[in-house]
Amino acid sequence: MLNLTPVERSALRAEAHGLKPIVMVGEAGLTPAVMKEIELGLDSHGLIKVRVFGDDREARIEMYETICAELDAAPVQHIGKLLVLYRPKKDAEKTAAKSGKGMRMVTVVKPSPSGRSKPTVTKVLLKGNERVTSGGNIKRAKKRQTSTKKSTLA
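^ that's the sequence the OP posted. Answer follows.
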């Protein structure tokens, strides 16, 4: 189980306030499918809410502890039938690759000029400041305009 300091827990509670529950636990309880969905939610979001339908408070506390122990998550908050869980994201590397920085491979499909033959398909490596237009051409981003006033003041 992951341990949090009171300051971290407080910040996570504030962040979780606006979230909606992404996993609902029904009368069947913690089935393997529910545990898998909770794990997927933790992997992709990091901080999630889980709603437990059931009136037994002791059962909810037991579920909360079981989820945290099995999935190596930190308990953030348990209010009524809502459980808030936290685990650092595992796909942080994937999101860094999608941020648009660096080079990326793009498939460009250009229609034939006559319209009767097959379109041409090419794979192109784009730099961070390049984009593909709707016609299939590669364009570089324009340089940022700088203020003439700022350049004279400096």
